[in-house]
Amino acid sequence: MGTARPSDAANRRAESVCAPARIAGERESVAKATPPAAPLLRGEVLRRREFLFLLGSGCVLGGMACATTKPTRVTLPAKHSIRSDQLLLVSDLKLAKDHPLIEDLKTLRGQVSDKLELPLGNKQVMVYLFSNETEYSQYLRAAFPGYPPRRAYFIQTPGKELAVYTWWGDRIQEDLRHEYTHGLLHAALESVPLWLDEGLAEYFEVAGPAPGKVNVEHAQQLVTSVQNGWRPDMDRLETLEKVNHMRREDYREAWAWVHFMLHSSPDTRQVLLNYLHELRTNPKPGPLHPRLLAETPDADVRCVGYVVSMNTPGLWNPAPPVHRAAMRTIGR
């Protein structure tokens, strides 16, 4: 199996399971939406793209023969596809090529490249978009038994594809931005430390004309944590290697460190950019925190003040998401 990282609504982002391949950011299932609306999961790509899912069998009592229900064939979406730059989206829903979601992902690719000063290349990122949660869940159970239910999965299989798995739901834009960010990063870099991978995905999932808008929920919860004595600890984050080791607060802290380094000062930003550029050729560059402290010795203290400032009304303005009506406009 490949490595997997999930993103989870309850757990915020779940885990990265290491094996031959890597899963990134999986998301927990949420309330169903009327098709064509549903959420995203990260899953791993296997050679066979078609699986049989045995729904169940029953035996009629009283001496009658045992009856078994016919297995339901569960397949990946395949009816429609849209290609744009590195994105190849395959779905059983027909989306217009200029659908707001597709346009947003095209914009996101440019934002990731520009903000991180990374050449992204042309390595393909697959997105398998299921039309409903039921088919998505059945496929995930058949293809990846043992994986917990999540809204979205990104899975990287070495030597094969970078793939996002999801279903169309009310938070599809947020989920796609998060998971596609993982795909872009893994297409450009030799390796991405778990906490940084998730922190960057959290950072870019907030939609807007420019990256860096504040995740209001994260900001509010972090301020409460600071008031209760919490302090950021990048050294601890850098020891986390599996997504199931990360808690909800770890995703928030990872996001805060990324936001702080990119926006606090030119020096902190350059430390992060240099580290990412090294990851293009060196999969094991060592920890980031010592480099940050060497450039900004009081970075930990400054990060606390920065986190508190993010919750100041009017200082940061979250970007409005794509209008729900637009999200539900499906090409026919």
Please give a structural write-up.
With 332 residues, the chain is of the alpha+beta class. It has a domain at 3-51 and 77-190. Helix content is 38%, strand content 17%. The protein has eleven helices and twelve strands. The strands form three sheets. Strands 1, 2, 3, 8, 9, 10, 11 and 12 form an eight-stranded mixed sheet that branches. It has a two-stranded antiparallel ribbon with strand order 4-7. A two-stranded antiparallel sheet has the order 5-6. Strand 8 and strand 9 form a beta hairpin. Helix 3 (172-188) crosses helix 4 (194-205) and helix 4 (194-205) crosses helix 7 (248-263). It is globular and about 55 Å long. 45% of the residues are buried. Mean pLDDT is 79; it is low at 8-22, 28-69 and 317-332.
Beta content comes to 15-25%
The ordered string of helix (H) and strand (E) elements is EEEEEEEEEHEHEEHHHHHHHHH
Helix content: 25-40%
Largest sheet, in brief, is: 8 strands, mixed
Number of helices: 11
Shape: globular
